[in-house]
Here is the input.
Amino acid sequence: MEETNKESTKDEIKYRGIRAMPFVIGNETFEKLGTIGSSSNLLVYLTSIFHLKSITATNIVNIFNGTCNFGTLLGAFLSDTYFGRYNILGFASVCSFLGMLVLTLTAAVSKFHPPECGNQETAPVCVGPTARQMTFLLGGFGLLVIGASGIRPCSLAFGADQFDPNTESGRRGVMSFFNWYYFTRTFAVMVSLTVIVYVQSNISWSLGLAIPTITMFLSCALFFVGTKIYVRFVPKGSPLSSVAQVLVAAFKKRHLQLPEQPCFSLFNYVPSNSLNSMLPYTNQFRFLSKAAVKTPEDHINSSDGSAVDPWRLCSIQQVEEVKCLLRVIPIWVAGTIYYVSVVQSQNYVIFQALQSDNRLGHINFHIPPASFIVISMLSITIWLPIYDRVLLPWLRKFTGKEDGITLLQKMGIGIFLSIATMILSGIVEDKRRTLAMTRPMLQMTQGKGAVSSMSGLWLIPQMALAGLSEAFTLISENEFFYKQCPENMRSIAASFFFVGMAGSSYLSSFLTSVVHKTSSWLAEDLNKGKLDSFYYLIAGLEILNLGYFLVCAKWYKYKGRAGDNKVSERTDQNEIVI
Here is the structure.
């Protein structure tokens, strides 16, 4: 490959740092404007232009989002094992652009979408899409899935690759890059959910989808213009093979007994080029430690001390790295279930807004339904500085800990707030439906029912609380994965968040389908359904999830370092205070 010839030794690497940032940051900004601008209003697009039922549209969006997130694991694997981040990012960016182009054509060309609803005296007659129209639309979604699967797990790491981690200026540059990365992401999301959504809802779907398509073209152009100055590392294989070796070796030696003092008796080879920190021996998942039991059948290389057959004999350090990964999984499950409430609150707040009075005061300005999601982002933006500058210093003094409270405690608070969010959402929906039945407005929502006289501004508190919940859970979960997984598995750890989002999307789609088939809660016309009961059902699910999370947090042992007495002691204790 091209990358293999270019970088044979570390001395040949020329880090361009800041010089590469305009291309990387520009690519990231325009890419987020494109993808989020195209996908943030999909529910409204599918129901109003393609005349799909709300349940069908919700399931398509959930499956689309879930597949995009789940695909990041495959994208990370292909990047780290075969192709490298540059090649994956380039290919994925082109796929995203083509997917957005297809989506734009479905709105701009009349043959690619159903005709407008005909006017009848009783109700408008809406014709659904043909098989060819749906195939073309789903083809665009497929290209967007390929693009997201490659861009999401690789873009942040590729930007950090441009700085030399062995110099002070390089380390500062990485910190600056992370700040700019999240700033541009937030900026892109805000613009997408306000300006682009407004153009789509009030001016033209063709123009509203063409704008993010153009920004994605600019993203591709900026990325390829900077090709000559990028640092492109050669793939060195996937850490998943190390995990497989431990599992296979432990299974082969499942009948063996562990020595009385395993931490001193097990095979403990550490490669000279290992990036991982030394880990202390732990008693959790003891059966895996059998992979490091040396038997007469095991042979050692005389040159470096490594095992001749790594599928039969593994280092205890290798085993402990796998244990770290396994300990994270129960916490990841709790995070996945948590995001069901996030997905449902974001989906159904749009339908609530469609059948609410969205006028802003007494002026003739209507807030686009999809823009209500911005409230949760504003909540996060406002809360984080307050927490960092005001609450965190007080917590440090109160708890005596540098972080104030542990990462698992933050996640627990976020799950608790999600329960409060669902309960509040149910109360607001009950009020909205009551006013829709007793004091409806004159207009009707296309394909649905009467518009409630309740102001859409009453949806703000539930979205603000949802944002506060995400501020606790989302950030702490990402930090948790990064810190608790071994260093050589951090690219896989970065995919955990997206895979969890994928699982929550699929779970949300399944839950929505089951509730729709077994009850009348999720009717096309919210006024004839019981959306508040659905919210209470999710609140009950989150209560069970909170109980499960507390059990897992009590069991969890934080990753330590070998030779650090304080840390080693801490890993034998339960870190979270229940």
